[in-house]
C-alpha cells in the first residue's frame, strides 16, 4: 500500500486537473452560447430595422449586418410562414434559402437554441460557432485520451512491479533449490549407509524404500524450484505415466486405518504423450491430488485420476474426489492466488496448477460441476 500510494495520489491529482479543465471549457462553451444568443437577438433587431421602408439604403445598417456575419454564428432567418429568407455561416454547402437541407437545418438549430424574434414578422434560428462546437467536444476527447494514457501507465507500472516480484521470487526459488542440494546429497549418503547395514538393525530394510522415495521426492522438489522463472521444456511426456507416478507416491502415504483414503488411476493401455515439461506437469497434478487429500482429511474417501485421450493428440486428466466438494459461492475464487479455505493454507496450490497448465502448456484447468466432491480436468493439447 505504501509503495502504491504515490501512484494513487498522482492519479487523483491528474484526474482532478482534467476534471477542472473540462468544467472550465464547458463554462466557456456556455458563455459562447450566451454570446451567440445575443448575436442572434442583434440579428433579429437589425433585420427588423432593415425591413422598414428606405432602411435598405442605410450604409450604416448594412455595415452592422456585415459585422454581425463575421461572428460566424450559423443563422437562418425565416418569415412568418417559416420559410427561410436569409442564411449565414451554415456548416455545409447549399444552394440558397430554398435548398431542402436549409429548411431541414432549421429544426437542428432550434434543438441547439430557442429561436428569437417575432413570429408574426420573422424569426432568427441560430446555432453554435465552430469554436463553441470544438470546445464542447475536443476537451472531452482530450480527457478521454489522457485518461487512457494514465490507465496504460498504471498498467505498465503494475506489470513492471509484477515482473520484478517474479524475478525476485524466481531468484529465491533457485537459491532454495541450491541450498537444498547439500542436505539432499547428505541424506542420499545416509541412505546408502543404511542399505549396507540394513541387516544389523531390525525394521530398517522395510523402511529404506520409503526413505529413499522421500529423498527422491526432495530432489524432484528442488528440481522444480530450479525450473521457476525458466522457459518450460517441450519434451514428449507420457501423461499417463506421470499420473501413475503421482498416485503411487501418495498411495503408501494415505491413512489406511481410521478414516481410510484410497487413491487410484484409470488409464488406457499404452502411452499418451503430450508436449510439455514433465517436472511442471507432475507438480500441477500433485497440487490437485494434495488438494483432494486435504479435503478428505478426517473423513476418508476416494480419489480417482482418470487419464483419457483428448482432441487431436492431446490428453485429459480428471482428478476427482468424493469429499464435501466446493461451495457454489466460492467456486469462482478457488484459482485466485492467496485464496484458501484452510486456516494454515497459503492459497497457491490451485493458482500454481492453473498457471502451469494454461500459461506454460497452453492447456486448460477446469473446475467441473459435480453432484459430489470436487472434480478438476487438466486438458493438455497435443
Describe the overall structure:
With 382 residues, this protein is α+β, with helices and mostly antiparallel strands. The protein is 53% helix and 16% strand. It has eight helices and eleven strands. Helix 4 (130-196) runs antiparallel to helix 5 (204-227) and helix 7 packs antiparallel against helix 8. The longest helix is centred in the middle third of the chain and has 67 residues, at 130-196. It is elongated and about 130 Å long.
| C-alpha Rg (nearest Å) | 39 Å
Number of strands: 11
SS summary, helix count: 8
Number of domains: 2
Mean pLDDT: 78
The main sheet comes to: 5 strands, mixed
CATH level-3 fold name of the largest domain:
Heat Shock Protein 90
CATH hierarchy class name of the largest domain: Alpha Beta
Unreliably modeled segments = none
Shape: elongated
Which strand-content bin applies to the residues? 15-25%
What structural category characterises the helix and strand content?
A: alpha+beta
**SSE ordering:** HHEEHEEHHEHEEHEEHEE
The CATH superfamily of the largest domain appears as Histidine kinase-like ATPase, C-terminal domain
Strand order of the largest sheet: 6-8-9-11-10
CATH architecture identity of the largest domain: 2-Layer Sandwich
Give the CA-CA distance, first to last residue: 43 Å
The oligomeric state is single chain
Helicity level, as a percent range?
40-55%
Task: Give the helices and strands, then pairings.
Elements: H1 5-50, H2 59-69, E1 75-79, E2 84-88, H3 100-112, E3 116-118, E4 122-126, H4 130-196, H5 204-227, E5 235-238, H6 239-251, E6 261-267, E7 273-276, H7 278-296, E8 301-309, E9 315-321, H8 349-359, E10 364-368, E11 375-380
Parallel strand pairs: 6-8
Antiparallel strand pairs: 1-2, 1-4, 3-4, 5-7, 8-9, 9-11, 10-11
